[in-house]
Task: inverse folding
């Protein structure tokens, strides 16, 4: 009887102890971090809500020169064979000081394109462009004064215009200067200057 009582007491203590241990293992582990039960707001932070919405900035576009539209209109009309329209557009651009348009007006008046030929009017536009350093116009002025078309022949003026164009690298103008100095057409013959300009052209 004594041994049974002792065994019974031992088993009772064993079961109690094992029950305590099993209870400990069956409990779920504590989370490493406490979970927040606050609702997540889908709206942007207050700083973004109050921020003004800015339109994307566009790169500033350079304004076209006043003469460009008219010049392009004239160019397109000339290519299409509409010479009166081309001349009208070139005249508008030329009036705004565009030297290339001024030169083209001179060319059209000289050749009678879109208008009756008029060397005097051609010289007006050539001179305006030539004074702005337009090489072709300087050469054209020299030619008009050399030939006396639309104005009185003036070889000294012709040579002065040729020299301006020659200094800008026009081979035709350099040859003109060489021949005129060699032949003494505008002034006393000057072989030294003639050679200089002819060598430059060569």
Result:
């Amino acid at each position: 009887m004594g041994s049974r009582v002792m065994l019974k007491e031992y088993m009772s203590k064993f079961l109690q102890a094992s029950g305590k241990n099993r209870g400990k293992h069956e409990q779920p582990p504590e989370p490493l971090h406490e979970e927040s039960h606050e609702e997540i707001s889908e709206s942007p932070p207050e700083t973004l809500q109050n921020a003004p919405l800015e339109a994307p900035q566009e790169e500033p576009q350079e304004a076209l020169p006043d003469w460009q539209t008219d010049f392009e209109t004239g160019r397109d009309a000339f290519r299409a064979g509409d010479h009166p329209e081309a001349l009208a557009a070139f005249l508008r651009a030329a009036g705004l000081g565009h030297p290339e348009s001024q030169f083209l007006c001179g060319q059209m008046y000289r050749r009678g394109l879109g208008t009756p030929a008029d060397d005097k009017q051609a010289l007006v536009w050539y001179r305006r462009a030539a004074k702005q350093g337009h090489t072709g116009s300087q050469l054209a002025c020299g030619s008009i004064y050399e030939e006396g078309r639309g104005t009185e022949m003036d070889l000294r003026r012709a040579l002065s215009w040729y020299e301006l164009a020659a200094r800008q690298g026009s081979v035709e103008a350099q040859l003109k200067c060489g021949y005129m100095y060699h032949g003494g057409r505008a002034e006393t013959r000057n072989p030294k200057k003639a050679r200089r300009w002819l060598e430059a052209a060569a």
Summary: The two ends are 143 Å apart (CA to CA). The chain is about 65% helix and 0% strand. The CA atoms of residues 66 and 96 lie 7 Å apart.
